């Protein structure tokens, strides 16, 4: 058995995984532990100063937490902008991870930041930009949050989600610092879970991201960006299958 490690995306925290964890348990959880990480300023780390942090310092903090828990050869899943951190975490300490899962993650080109990749246009307006669901120059943060995160959520779920999102302070470095992945390609086996009805990262872009990462496999699910809230059972089944296949092909180091 191995550990499943979950790392949230922007404006989220470890609170976002509750429904997924419950779905995994209902399906007969096969993991030794399920570990939920928080970026500084998010979730259990709300209120932390984050403006001076760098991508490297965030990676070092997250991996240090895993080392304190004696993690080895774990299955690390990251969502959305966590896609910039997973390759760096793997390079910083490859012994921690046996397989990486990218869940609808954003993957800038080498030397590009998340914000440069997104641009200032709407989806499809600029060929070289991912864009946004609404015009970012005239849309309020509240309206943008609804457009990005609200698909398939009922009013109660959406109100709860927006309340949590409003309290998060994602480290600016994750969005604005240029991304480099030296030493990563081929280091750790990986899977990309592509969300087909994504209102933040369109499926066409996610396919490009999977290619940039040189993942070993791509799995598509018919869900919006917040699959862990809207389709937790389906996502749990995919994670369990990825683990079974990875374990049968290369084996995870048993505890």
Any overview of this molecule?
- The chain has 255 residues and is an alpha/beta fold.
- The chain has a single domain (4-249), classed as 3-Layer(aba) Sandwich (Rossmann fold).
- Helices cover 36% and strands 13% of the residues.
- The protein is built from ten helices and six strands.
- α3 links the parallel β3 (74-79) and β4 (97-103).
- α1 (18-26) packs across α10 (232-249).
- The mean pLDDT is 95.
Structural class: alpha/beta
User: How many domains in all?
Assistant: 1
Shape: globular
The poorly predicted ranges are: none
- Average predicted confidence as pLDDT: 95
User: Which range best describes the helical content: under 10%, 10-25%, 25-40%, 40-55%, 55-70% or over 70%?
Assistant: 25-40%
Main sheet makeup: 6 strands, parallel
Q: Whole-Å distance between the termini?
A: 7 Å
Instruction: For the largest sheet, list the strands in their spatial order.
Output: 2-1-3-4-5-6
Instruction: Figure out the total of helices.
Output: 10
**Quaternary status:** single chain
CATH domain class: Alpha Beta
Number of strands: 6
